[in-house]
Amino acid sequence: MFTIDLFRRFLKYTAIGLVALTVTTWTAFEGAHLWVEKVALAPETDEDAKQWEWDLEADKWSGLPKGGTDPGLGFSGRHAVRSAWMVLNWGTGSRTSVVASKAFTGRNGEGATLTPIQASLEYAQEFLRIAIETAEQMNAKGKLHPMTLTTLLARRADVVSRMGTRNALDESRSEYERVWANLSGQGVQAARVALKLGDLNRRLGDTDDALSWWARSIQLATGHAASTSANAAPSIPDIVPQTPLAQRTLVSALVSLSAFYATTGQLRQAQDLEESSISLLRSIPSPRSFESASPGQALHCLYILHRSSILSIHLAEVLYALRTKPATSIDWLTRAAQSAERVALSLTGLPPTHPDAPGSQIPHPPASETPLTEVYAKSKSMASPAKNLLRDARRTAAEAWNLIGILTEGSGSNDATAKALECYERALGWAGVGHDKAGGIGEPGEGTLESDWKVFWSNYVRARDAVRKQEQK
User: Fold this and answer.
1) What is the DSSP string of 180-219?
2) What CA–CA distance (Å, rounded) separates 440 from 183?
3) I want to staple 52 with a disulfide (CB 3.0 to 4.6 A). Which of 16, 296, 312, 355 is the partner?
């Protein structure tokens, strides 16, 4: 009897434990989904961010103005959308890559890719695919918000494009074309989609289509109707748009167009575009100082300033290719480096001058590890664009200083190598992570490509060794 009673108690407590575990797990699961629904996907409430239209640029997960997921998706569809958000923002709990993705079929029916893909992207696109299938069914029954399906298509297109493979880019292009059709080619959101389609077509090698899409993006951003011609040529507007999001869309399209002309040997067209674009961007009003501006306005102006610095680098390279005096290219590169550094320092809350000599004109040393200021890091709509802008500004500053070093080193002056070494050191400072506070350079920083780091490092080592040899003589 004792043995039977012991066995009964064991079964009883085991059953209670299993029920408690199941309830706890289910509660935690649904609690996480509830948090995402009510907090993470809640609409922007910061009036400053809304005034500068950062809320319109933020990732959308439904067509509802009130945020959250669309009730019309039902239980499984809404959970799929929230699950996609979770794996993108919280990860999958594993750093392994998915070797074969089943996401792509391609325009010619190609099968799955064998290229390693980040696991979070693969799972996110799969969850979004499930949500889109549900949305299509509910949309046909009239149970869905008119913009939900379009929003989910755009979200999956963005995720898939980040995978980087040719099949992924082709799939992303197809999804964005559906978004374009749903938007009827009207408004600033359509301009943003046209910009993305231009960039995707460029990466896929379809240059004529890329030019047509960039032309449509510029037209829509400046308030004009998009051309229906497949051979529409982009043109530089005479005035900038009035709304912040349209301004950011326009300048991004100009940067893409500049890079296209410069890398395809159309140097005169590139020069004209870059000079006109830089002049146009100077007409955009800016505050006397970023410290006196609101966070939303400051981020907008920093975005424009950074894109202007990219155009300056493009112009410097084009002028050098056209056999212009290297000093002219160095001037443009110096402007680009200083502008990019100003952007990076402003986003991290650091002063533009050296902390040990605040009253001097000595620039602040590179700060590749300093995080975003709290005002941006804690913002619902501005955190992501501010983080991306900080990464891009550091990369731009590093690239500009590296090119200045190359041109300075080739000038032939007596102190050319020593000056070039200073430029290379500054490039490494923006691109790398120091092992100690004294500025020791250790490894590539976040956002720095390994190939770029190797170039910066080899230039630095070459100049350093040359200076040492000169000192020993």
Assistant:
1) HHHHTT-SHHHHHHHHHHHHHHHHTT-HHHHHHHHHHHHH
2) 51
3) 296
- Find the helix or strand (DSSP H, E) in which 442 lies: strand 441-444
**Residue at token pair 């958000």:** 85
Rg (CA), the chain: 26
Q: In this structure, what are the phi and psi dihedrals at residue 441, rounded to the nearest 5 degrees? A: -90, 130
Closest to 423 (Cα-Cα) out of 467, 359, 391: 467
CA terminus-to-terminus distance, the chain: 99
Residue 421: which residues within 8 A CB-CB, separation 6 or more?
A: 405, 460, 463, 464, 466, 467
Tens of pLDDT, residue by residue over 392-443, are 999 999 999 999 999 999 887 888 899 999 999 999 999 987 554 444 556 8
Scanning the structure block, which residue is given the tokens 């197809």?
174
DSSP string for residues in 401-431: HHHHHHHHHTT--TTHHHHHHHHHHHHHHHH
Asked if residues 457 and 404 have their Cβ atoms less than 8 Å apart, the reply is no
- Distances in Å between the alpha carbon of 101 and those of 173, 201, 304? 17, 22, 37
> pLDDT tens digits, residue range 80-117?
999 999 999 988 776 666 655 666 654 444 555 566 78
Phi, psi angles (nearest 5°) of residue 401: -65, -35
pLDDT in tens, 330-359: 999 999 999 999 999 999 999 888 777 677
Tens digits of residue pLDDT in 26-44 = 666 678 888 888 888 899 9
Asked whether 432 and 423 are in contact (CB, 8 A), the reply is no
Q: Which residue has the tokens 């799972």?
A: 123
User: CB of 335 within 8 A of CB of 308?
Assistant: no
d(CA 245, CA 299): 12
Report field, pTM of the whole predicted structure over 0.85: yes
Provide long-range contacts, Cβ within 8 A and 24+ apart, for 137-146.
138/72, 138/73, 138/74, 138/77, 143/72, 144/63, 144/70, 144/72, 144/73, 145/62, 145/63, 145/64, 145/70, 145/72, 146/63
Q: What's the mean pLDDT when you consider all of the chain?
A: 87
The phi, psi pair for 434, rounded to 5°, reads: -80, 145
Q: What are 112-146's pLDDT values in tens digits?
A: 556 678 888 999 999 999 999 999 999 999 889 99
